[in-house]
Amino acid sequence: MGLIVQKYGGSSVADAPAIKRVAKRIAETRRAGHDVVVVVSAMGDTTDELIDLANAITPMPPAREMDILLTAGERISMSLLAMAIANLGVSAQSFTGQQAGVITDEAHGRARILEVRADRITQALADGHVAIVAGFQGVNPTTNDVTTLGRGGSDTTAVALAAALGAEVCEIYTDVDGVFSADPRIVPTARKLDRVTYEEMLDLAASGAKVLMLRCVEFARRYHVPLHVRSSFSGREGTLVTDPVEGEGQMEQPIISGVAHDPSEAKVTVVGVPDVPGTAASVFEAVAAAGVNVDMIVQNVSAAQTGLTDISFTLPSADGPKATAALQAVKEQLGYESLQYDDQIGKLSLIGAGMKSHPGVSAKLFGALRDAGINIEMISTSEIRVSVITRADQLEDAVRAVHTAFGLDAEEQEAIVYGGTGR
User: Fold this and answer.
1) What are the tens digits of pLDDT across the range 318-339?
2) Which of 315, 319, 361, 413 is the most exposed place for a label (fewest CB within 10 A)?
3) CATH of segment(s) 3-174
4) Residue ranges of the domains in the chain?
């Protein structure tokens, strides 16, 4: 039997009964003959509660101290889970990210994994233990300081360990039964997808699907780690995320895999920019220097009378203040007239590897939105994705209309959000 890495999210270990249920599943996997490494998140809303506590102390908590504080959540859940497994007669040892050899850079709150030195985990497995690893955290070897990986960091920890240990699969346990054709909280008739490719999952994650985080999927694709998204609340099969399987189901491959949405986008418009070479570069160099990632970009045709144009781009709404401040700081250099900021927008994305060989997908998408009375403000496309920006208050209606238009609705409800969060 091979090595399996399992990751359990916060809703899966939210309280003592949930931890006992997860421990039983892990013990069964170990008794089936597999070596097992488990990555665990903090219990329930522990991380958010710790953030709120820090903000009650100071409006600007030091990043280093925040990382030390936030890693406490995973340490609690890993030790309790190890106790629960031991209580079932299966030997288990818990490890912090540092003890597990998760080596990161020193960017507190958003550290990136540089390598995994998994000697202690390998030894624990050789000694017959289940290894329980605290997700979301690592250590910088230069400063020896604890670091955290940002939102979804436990998923990334699990995939990194699976890659370093040569696991046969990385099972991501959440509170839904797999990856669905849309958010089941918005579209109750969403279909569960049995298999999606890394590329499709990357676009789904980047477009707002929360079941897997983008960095986790990027890591899995780079190291060819199969992901199996399942629910810890049921025994259903879940969704496999892998490389395309040559010759398997190609004739019946669906055109569209799913509809993702992201209500956390905002739009910045730089009004009256001189339409001369280098202007766009200067705009986005200023934004990049502020550490802001942009998503969709549109530049209007310049007015013949004035020689000025407008440049609009979308970004995470949390980064809006940084982006606008950076652009205001270089207003004189850029010579633009004004800035407009709009955080009442949302992004809808249609994703599917089959669309690259099927004409008419965009026409059907735009027709469905027209028939639903929804206006499109921006459009972006790739080989397997079409994204549009709509008003935020129309986004959920847009998702349902597009999902139905492309025949993705299940005949009966398949999607259950057991823990209430979809993670």
Assistant:
1) 899 999 999 999 999 999 999 9
2) 413
3) 3.40.1160.10
4) 3-174
